[in-house]
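Open question from group meeting: does this chain pack into something compact, or does most of it stay loose? Before anyone orders reagents, we agreed to write out a predicted structure and look at it together. Recording both the input and the output here so the notebook holds the full record.
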Amino acid sequence: MTRTETRQIAFELLYSLEIQKTEASEQEEQINLFLEGQDIQDKKVKDYAIDMINGIEENKEEIQSLISQNLKEKWDITRISKINITLLKLAIYEIVYKKLPYKVVVNEVVELAKKYGDDNSPSFINGVLANVIKQCNITEEQ
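Structure tokens returned:
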């Protein structure tokens, strides 16, 4: 399975947890149910998805703060669709915490936004992430 496909699985899992408003204590069970339901056997994919969920959960206040700080004036994080908020969390975690190349992450998350979001999702996601990258002084070398 490619990194792109793995990222999509991680997004779908994160989105399902977001929709269900799963408590941290229930996450492990929900993750296992999701992976079984998707018939994910690849250990690398499982490990990546679990790392992603746990990392986002551990850093959720800072991730949400980065999103809130980089919205347009008069916008509130509560106005963002579940799909867009999930994509932003995933991308910020990969860029800021995993130090993955931001161009790759932004490109792939924008592609997921085209697939799953509404017509405005790709440009919205791209704009917020561009602001986060500037705010965090992230360079291509990171």
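Observations to bring back to the group:
The two ends are 25 Å apart (CA to CA).
The chain has one domain: 3-135.
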